[in-house]
Amino acid sequence: MREISYEAQTVKSGNPLARFAHRTRMTMATDLVTGLCPMRGTVVDFGAGPGLFLHTLGEARPDITLIGHDKFMAPTFPEVKYAESLDGVASHSVDVLTSFEVCEHLYASEVHALLDDAARILKANGALVISVPIMYGLAIAPKVSNWMIRSRTLKSEYTPAELLKSMVGIRVERPDNPRITHKGFDFRELRDVVSERFAIDAAHVSPVPNAPWWISSQYFMICRPRGSV
């Protein structure tokens, strides 16, 4: 199967609905981090992919130090530095740690490891910003359709019954391997895990803000270390 680039799957998708959702997500991510990061601050993007978000952020905020980390993709933007792991990032040195559209692909132990790293590397008043897909509600049907079109297949990983359950918010079983699928991911479960370690300062949905979450396709959390002001 022909490999599809990250941008072709997201902000340059041939599907206008998917393209709109990802471009709106990118704008929201940039706006949120721009507002959270102080002048000459440091932003680390966990699961940075080729570095598109950090490149976009750097255009809006050239004063920010940009650091990416990704185990599976190589950087394509020369202004973005990459860390081999978060272990190499100094303690209490980061103003904003981001993880966009990554946690849905992590095993539970990896989510806990990310939260451990966040607690260590964030400054006392720093922020952890997470976005994940909403896989329940009205967005599930176009998401599954887009996956089928992009993969050039008439076969879906959802059965008709599972698709209907997802649309009305009934839990669908997750596959054992989360790496290549969003099926059954529930942002509410992740939110509960994160809230055990961090205070969730604010939440946003995209691309339909100020509406119930089940209308949108992405969920954002701004999280603060416990005891921060």
From TrEMBL:
UniProt KW Glycoprotein keyword: no
InterPro entries per record: SAM-dependent_MTases_sf
UniProt keyword list: Methyltransferase, Transferase
Keyword match Methyltransferase: yes
UniProt GO molecular function: methyltransferase activity
Family matches, as Pfam families: Methyltransf_23 (PF13489)
Gene3D superfamilies for the chain: Vaccinia Virus protein VP39
Superkingdom of the source species: Bacteria
Biological processes, Gene Ontology terms: methylation
Protein name: Methyltransferase domain protein
Biological classification of the source: Bacteria, Pseudomonadati, Pseudomonadota, Betaproteobacteria, Burkholderiales
